[in-house]
Amino acid sequence: MGLTGLDIYKQLPKKNCGECGPPTCLAFAMALASGKTELSACPYVSEEAKEALESASAPPIKLVKVGTGDREIQLGDEQVLFRHEKTFYHPTGVAISVSDALDEDELQARLDTINGLVFDRVGQQYRVDLVAITNESGDAANFARTARTVAGKTNLALVLVALDPVVMRAALSEVADQKPLLYAANNDNYEEMTQLASENGCPLAVLGDGLDGLAELVQKIVDLGYKELVLDTGNREISRVLADLTQIRRLAIKKRFRPFGYPTIAFAQGENTRDETIQAAAFVAKYASVVVTSASGKHEIMPLLTVRANIFTDPQKPIQVEPKVYQVGEVAPDSPVYVTTNFSLTYFSVEGEVEASKVPSYILAIDTDGTSVLTAWAAGKFSGEIVGEFVKSCGIEEKVNHREIVIPGHVAVISGKLEEASGWKVIVGPREAAGIPSFARSRFAS
Fold it and tell me: I want to staple 349 with a disulfide (CB 3.0 to 4.6 A). Which of 91, 106, 167, 433 is the partner?
């Protein structure tokens, strides 16, 4: 468990200078104990105190990196149980499993499928993050060869899944420079696996026997001097895994129980890939840092990545597009001009319907801090004056030979102010984006 506020207070300089933020050293100590500030905020803390207070100032869940360069993904470093308390920082890494028992053609086909798991949605690109290479052949040479092939033909981080240190060493001889996650150290092999991880600078998964066994094994590995760890209790029943992941997160954050202060990994295991996808989505929600699945169909992975995006998108920072003039189709000086907000979901809904209308058009995306039309209007961010100012400054007046602008039907009330501010004639369009195709064809189609 982490130090109490009074324990921390005893190590502080007791100047009560307020330079750290809180007005007194005691208040700072309490904030540090609850994870609401960092020790570095105190400009006068001694080096001896820094060392003594390391456990209190360290993040409740350690940041662990897998891969290098463009392949690198970051795990852990989370501060809260629930997103609304602060935010979630590092989305769950999605790993697709690959067996080393596949022949050359099967392996290439599998990698082609994995490389194709890239999706564009509301202006963002979704993709999987890792390939988990499993030693199902039992052969060290096969495992090493498969690891080399995967590393050479994908741009994804690697997980090496083998419990035999000899087999693991063979694969590391091929891909150690990629800093793969080594899975896994257990009670039988933890000394050899820890040595391999330490020698090669790779993160190490710890495979326990339940929560208690995992805590004991983590402590043994930490005592050997290695802390780049990822945790797995070893349970595979979905209800048990969810309970374990929740307890690890809760104990790490609420109790500062250091043996559980590391990212986690979970394996989706169902009777079919559909069940695996459902399990994987549950593990993303509660609280896996990496989830491994054999599912690789686009119809399976796209929903999983969408769930992940929904969970890890900061609700205080909505997904936005750049506020500017957009062109849909081969626009001309007489093309219609629509206006909407820069909230990605709103903008791409409008863009899709404008494209479906077959009438080339301009779309003005107003900066509303990523809020929808009605929300922005209610907050005073989509008023006639603001939209009018944007019309004057965005350059649309140099692109068209007319002065007509279409606004969403829900905010028809801004028409008068917009005409005054811009000098443009306002056309009240459909209330919903779905009404744009018929509206455009009836009004603008030649």
Answer: 433
Predicted confidence at residue 319, as pLDDT, reads 83
CATH superfamily, domain 64-312, is Dihydropteroate synthase-like (3.20.20.20)
CATH number for the domain formed by residue range(s) 325-443: 3.40.50.11600
Token readout for 228 is 């780049």
Going from N- to C-terminal start, the domains of the chain cover 5-57, 64-312, 325-443
> What superfamily in CATH does domain 5-57 come from?
Electron transport complex subunit B, putative Fe-S cluster (1.10.15.40)
**Token pair listed for 445:** 């189609």
d(CA 154, CA 148): 10
276-307 burial, b if ≥16 CB within 10 A, otherwise e?
A: bbbbbbbbbebbbbbbbbbbbeeebbeebbeb
Higher-confidence residue: 277 or 50?
277
Rg (CA), the chain: 27
pLDDT of residue 438: 95
Length of the chain: 446
State the pTM of this model: 0.76
CB < 8 Å & 24+ apart, contacts of 57-62: 57/32, 58/261, 59/261, 60/2, 60/35, 60/252, 60/253, 60/256, 60/261, 61/249, 61/252, 61/253, 61/261, 61/262, 61/263, 62/227, 62/229, 62/261, 62/262, 62/263
Structure confidence at residue 355 (pLDDT) = 95
Work out the angle between the directed axes of helices 140-153 and 165-175 (0-180°, nearest 10): 30
